[in-house]
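Repro:
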Amino acid sequence: MDFMQRQGQIEKVKNQMMQVMGITDPAEFQRIAKDYCKEMAVEMCLPYFHRLFSRISKVIEKSRDKFDKLDRVEKLKAVMKAAMDDVECVDTFKLAFEEEDIEAEGLKPEKSGQLRNEGNAAFQKKKDIDALKLYTEAMFSAKPETEEGKKDIAMALANRSAVLIKMDNFERCLEDIEAALQFGYPHNMRFKLLDRQAKCLTKLGRYSDAVQSYNRLVLSLKEANLDNDKIEKWKKDTQKEIDGLKGKTDNPIEPTNNKQKLELEHPNKKIPQFSDCVQLVYHKKLGRYGIATRDIEAGELLMIDTSVTHHLLNATRSTHCTHCMKRVQNTEGIPSPIGIGTRFCSLSCSKAALDTYHPVEAKINLNKFFWSRKDKRYEELSGNIPLTFRAITQKPLDYFMTTWKDTFENVDAKFGAEFKQEDDICKYSDYRNIFFLEAHRQERTNDEMLSLGIRTILLIVMLRHGGYFGEKETPYAATMSDAELTMARIAFHIQEGIQFNLHSVDEILPNKLSGIATPEINEVGAALFPTLLLLNHSCEPNTLRICANGNQSIMVAKRKIKKGDEVSDNYGIHHVSFAFEERQERLKRGFHFSCCCDACANDFPRLRSLKEALPEAVEEKFDALRPELKITMLANREDVKDNFRKKNHQQCLKKSVEMIQLLEKNNIVYPHRHYELAALSLLSCLWTMYGNHH
């Protein structure tokens, strides 16, 4: 078609459009067309989630009055039909699912091989740390979906294991060897890997396992590309090693772990994540809340809670373990065998993920839905969506269909507070923790119901595409099956609760602590901590909490809590940071309640207005504790290691508690500036000693 023919067609289409739109002025049409194109250009740069949400909203708005009158189930059906009957919406879904992952754009097979060769060169020059980094980068540069990519990963893992055995890191060496074998390390080379495995097992006192590895080595020689003389030599040398292990009794060496760990000395028998000094009670107006069963001293450990479900931020997926949320250093980690961009800190985390949620998530890569083309970054939205997604994919469809199909709507606010049976125990892993969350369902507006409905249907389509419902001809059916409708109702219900109950998972940044100062932390992801949620909010809480061990939350007493007093948490809205009116407004908007704590009832001042005068004798004793704190709280990573060796941080923790007890003993009334200074010191110690580190 020549230029004149194309122009003629364009003019014909333009005239037809003007006629349909009722426009007679070509200039007006040109202006509208420009505005529309500009709007479309902006729309195309938005993350897929925004585009889908916006499009479905526009379709629903055409019959909004009718939609608002529908019950919840009919709303979900209507949203699915509106989305799947809309060509633009379906096309956007297809783009989101089929477009290459942003993390994959720079990955090339030759890059993996090149990095591995650079690692070999560093290893030969005895630059072990450099070699570890290069081998690690090599494996995360490969594409695990391809056979070539799997081989590249296996080779890099095997090479990294050679560095680790040289460094006497036998536990990690064994893990890399096992991972290399799982990724399909070449059969003709396995004899060397099995020899390395046997030597590690011997060093760790696992003699019977070492013999098994040596026997596997002998069998693998059949596939080795070696001449007969070399094979016989390997057999002879291996038999000598086996003979040397005969008669030895296994004496396994416990894995080394330099990080200090907190443990509850006396767990609560009914809620083992709490100490037995905390008891859960129920009140019609206050709901579930904790009280002290005895006097609790400042610094006492009250809770170690583990998330029942969690999810990384989009931006931290390539730096943290997707399963336990621990940071994965650039010399460690194992790639997912079925998805790009995901990494695990260990084989145990990889296996746990692959046995549950990861096969579904790897087919979808939820992250792609939040990538902004305009800003070239992820837009981090509320953790509600990924948390709901993970809460579902953690369990198979049969679990929900048999266990929760009818139960989830019977919301009992007293769950976890009333134990009617002797063996009733509220464990963090109990999925009732997800279903029985306070969600303020009676206060939902029509706009909120529409928003929840759209997000639910987006999740159902993602689950379809991920194979959660089994093989389907198309994930774009306008009608939901019985199983899909049940899961849509459950997903809607879970989102309602998670919205008001999620917590961020954080890590402390290095080189930031200096004396008594608020630790600077970095958000890693979001989680649902079921035991923590049993406590009520206070703007002047009597507890402190940190994030530890990846996906755990640890709580200690901030000051003395008397027997019978409520044990309270803080939702991030504290009287020292926000004035009364602002606190109330934030809590009402974000959590749908008005706070009646002592700080609100008595209008406690912000930090700059707190009392700071002390009796002279008390001030002298208080100040005498602070210089030692400033010396021992230096917190670059090397200082932390040195202080751990010298146990100075434990001393620092003790001094922080003594500062609080000094104020209490001398009847210094809270709120007071010195209580906050001492609490900051205590919090800094806890983060440094036990918290997640960058």
